[in-house]
Amino acid sequence: MKKQDNVILRRIGIVLGLVLLLGCFLFWPLNSYIESPGTAADLQSFVKIKGHPDRYKGSFMLTSVAIQRAHPATYLYAKMVPYMSIESVEDVTGGQNSATYDRVQKFYMDSSINEAIAVAYNAAHQKVTRRYLGIYVLQVQPNSKFKHDIHVGDTITKVDGHHFNTAQGFQKYIGTKKLGTPLAVTYIRDGKTKTVTHPLVRIANTNKPGIGIILTNNMQVKTKIPVKVDAGQYGGPSGGLMFSLQIYQQISGKNLQHGRKIAGTGTINSDGTVGEIGGIDKKVIAAHRAGATIFFAPYIKPTKEILKYEEDHLTNYQMAKKAAKKYAPGMKVVPVTSFDDAVKYLQTHK
């Protein structure tokens, strides 16, 4: 009986060991991420403009890339699927922790929405004003003397008591100082204003003095006709173009959709120019799965110099065309360099 018990216990141990190994295979997190096609969401539910509902059939669609932490099983699966890619943690997050990465992505989205509102309202000849809040901190460099006070997500509003209306204004003022000169920096975090003073340090790869941060502009827009845009859990700057089209259709009352499902991607600048983004091949697939027949892709001229630095040595438009040919038959990929290009296409191709 004792021998039989030992056999049973040994079998249970083997089973438990196999279960443990299987669990590690399925759920053990690796130091990488898997990127795959995400979703294509109807922007009508995201944009609310007082007195200007979207009355037309069709949809403008916000496309996304799905990002998930890799595990051994999903890693092997991604290796076998051509349209999935494996990226290092550093490439995806820039070395930031999850909370900081999410905060920066949310800012990028909020910033792109502000630009989209301004572009759309200006195109519709509706009143919109911009207010420059200051410098948004994207990263604090290791050699910065401010690293224990200023954090990612803070907005710098003054240096030595001076406010400027562009990042270049701040940089020009700081550039007149010498390395090691104390600088008083006023910043806002969670609605509270603080001021700290520390010496300037050498900016990486230059001899110029600086705070020691990576930055971008923090702008706010105000409109006479109230508009509210809620992007939910989406982050990043790549929705700018599509948000501008949705907002423009509503505020202008012009029917651009004509019953069509229209997807796309690209950043939007204050002058309406459209910029490139990452993962466009996956966004084309997401759009196709959601029934989109038109896909706007940022266009730049594919010179040899540019192609050296492009993902897979293809521009956004080239990659989108390639993905559509293979995975999205019947979808029309339209190259655009600006908001006006997209509007003109929709007005002339009904």
Automatic annotation (TrEMBL):
Keyword S-adenosyl-L-methionine: no
Record-level Gene Ontology MF annotations: ATP binding; ATP-dependent peptidase activity; serine-type endopeptidase activity
Gene3D superfamilies xref list: 3.30.230.10
Domain Lon proteolytic: from-to ranges: 222-298
Domain PDZ: 128-197
Keywords recorded for this protein, A-Z: Membrane, Transmembrane, Transmembrane helix
PROSITE patterns: PROKAR_LIPOPROTEIN (PS51257)
Record protein name field: PDZ domain-containing protein
